[in-house]
Design goal:
The chain has 319 residues and is mainly alpha-helical. The protein has 13 helices and no strands.
């Protein structure tokens, strides 16, 4: 068997780094809320991420893309992959534990598959994928503890925040599909240059929104923990993460790239329980497991496994 190429190893490393970074983002958002408002967190992480990638562009002496087409499409991606979901998730975590937000985030590949089926000509959901979508919705309901709607006023109070998390993941799905359809493979720029365009566009939008959303006073001053959390969220979770995401998306495609959210609930729940002492109910990890199973169905991973097993069985019979 041939050894994996250096490029394949770098892509796999980027995928793992994404899982760890985005999984910890929910903890970092929760800590940042100690001083900053949701809009300040969303816009702040975008600005820090854009400055990080801008500095890397300057240090590596890369040329910025000039094609209007790239800037136009990456602006759309910036809205759906940065501005909108960051605002929704940051607001949702004012009402939700970071772990449950991470669990709902795992539905991203389902929304990606739906968006792809609706917008890419000749693409449709197979019966197994439809089952996966329905199972995913059941997994979300289980992770949320939806049956509490009839008995727990606290659940009703947090329900809009849970819907906001679903809206954020649907936004991610639109962005992944848009990027694969209109950006991936249609230019000669590398992952850093493409991600820098995306975050620069997102930063411009954030600055336009800031006077309307983010002019609240900083609560309690610039406390070290929230400032460090927001800085880490910007440099790693927004800046470097989008270089890694662009690389994985270019190499593996939208649906496979979105599967990084299989791992984010594990990281998010573990960090929330260990570092923030968030309560862990029996149904949250069970719901996460159902969501991951549904994503495997949506991405037809079981079909691939059965095909491999059949081939091996045929090869063994031939011998």
């Amino acid at each position: 068997m041939a050894a994996p190429s250096r490029s394949a190893l770098l892509t796999a490393s980027a995928y793992l780094a994404l899982a760890l970074t985005w999984g910890s983002s929910f903890l970092l958002m929760k800590v940042s809320l100690g001083s900053f408002s949701p809009a300040q967190i969303a816009i702040g992480r975008i600005l820090i991420g854009a400055l990080t990638l801008g500095a890397l562009m300057a240090l590596t002496r890369r040329r910025w893309p000039r094609e209007r087409r790239i800037w136009g499409h990456m602006t759309v991606v910036a809205v759906f992959l940065c501005v909108l979901p960051f605002l929704l998730f940051a607001w949702a975590e004012t009402l939700l534990p970071s772990g449950i937000a991470a669990v709902i985030n795992a539905t991203t590949p389902i929304w990606t598959a739906i968006a792809t089926a609706l917008t890419v000509r000749g693409t449709r959901l197979h019966p197994g994928q439809v089952v996966g979508v329905l199972l995913g919705l059941c997994g979300v309901a289980l992770a949320m503890g939806a049956w509490q709607v009839v008995s727990d006023p606290a659940f009703l109070a947090s329900f809009p925040a849970q819907l906001a998390c679903l809206g954020a993941t649907a936004s991610y799905g639109i962005a992944f599909t848009w990027m694969q359809r209109f950006v991936t493979g249609r230019h000669h720029h590398d992952a850093l240059s493409t991600a820098a365009v995306q975050l620069t566009a997102a930063a411009a939008i954030g600055l336009l929104l800031a006077p309307f959303l983010a002019l609240e006073p900083i609560r309690g001053g610039f406390a070290p923990a929230p400032v460090l959390a927001l800085t880490t969220l910007g440099v790693l979770g927004t800046g470097l993460a989008y270089i890694w995401n662009t690389r994985v998306l270019s190499a593996w495609g939208a649906v496979a790239a979105a599967s990084v959210t299989y791992l984010t609930p594990l990281v998010g729940i573990a960090l929330g329980v260990i570092l923030l002492a968030e309560p862990l109910t029996w149904y949250e990890p069970l719901g996460a497991l159902v969501i991951i199973l549904s994503v495997l169905l949506v991405q037809r991973r079981f079909d691939e496994l059965l095909l491999v097993l059949r081939r091996r069985s045929s090869d063994a019979a031939a011998v």
